[in-house]
Amino acid sequence: MPGLSDVLILLGLVAAVALLALVLVVFLWQAERRRGQSRIEQLLQEHERNLSEARRESVQKSRSSLKGQIAEQMAPLLPGFRYLPADARFLGDPIDYLVFSGYTDLRDNRTGASDLDIVLLEVKQGASSLSPLQRAIAKSVQEGRVRFEILRISEEGALSSETWHPRNAAHPRGAGEPRRLP
Predict the structure, then answer these.
(1) How confident is the model at residue 179 (pLDDT cuts 50, 70, 90)?
(2) Are residues 87 and 62 part of one domain?
(3) Average pLDDT over residues 144-161
(4) Is 37 exposed, middle or buried (0-12, 13-18, 19+ CB in 10 A)?
(5) By C-alpha distance, which of 42, 179, 69, 182 is closest to 123?
(6) What are the phi and psi torsion angles at 172 (to 5°)?
């Protein structure tokens, strides 16, 4: 039968193993905590870099956008603009300009109505391309889906719309009659 000293030795060994296990757990916990803290610091630094890069890109895009907007508005004043600046009306969106080419000469009685052209003009910088909406507008023009409408406001404030047709044009409703729109 084991003696008291053997029991004390066994209890001492169990206590030592338990203490060693506790020290090992604390050591592993602290190591994991340091790794976690290091990962947090790494993520914070990465976030700061990403944030800084996003700010830089935002400022660059903003500058580029502003340059484009300025270029769009200044286009009629630049050398090589093929229309009179006075004939160009800035819209900005979805198309930059509506140009009434020959308007100034017509207004000043230097030319006839047949010399007036209507141009939808989009200003692009560099190799920029038309947006899908701008391509759809260009296709509408190309396919002749363009008209001149007159919106009339009655004394009571009611609106009525009609498509204008020249008096000598042949169309189903007769010469010069406006087509009423719903």
Answers:
(1) very low
(2) no
(3) 93
(4) exposed
(5) 69
(6) -60, -30
Of 28, 61, 81, which residue sits at a domain end? 81
How, if at all, do strands 97-101 and 117-121 pair?
A: antiparallel
Which residues 6+ apart lie within 8 Å of 81 measured at CB?
75, 88
Do 127 and 167 lie in one domain? The reply is no
Q: Which residues contact 160 (CB under 8 A, 6 or more apart)?
A: 151, 152, 154, 180
Q: Print burial letters for 86-108: b (CB count within 10 Å at least 16), e (below 16).
A: ebbeeeeeebbbebbbbbeebee
Domain that holds residue 71: 1-81
What residues does 119 pair with on adjacent strands?
A: 99
Dihedral sign (CA 15, 17, 19, 22): negative
pTM: 0.59
Number of domains in the chain: 3
Q: Which region, left, alpha or beta, applies to residue 169 given φ > 0 means left and ψ of -120 to 50 means alpha?
A: beta
**pLDDT in the model for residue 172:** 47
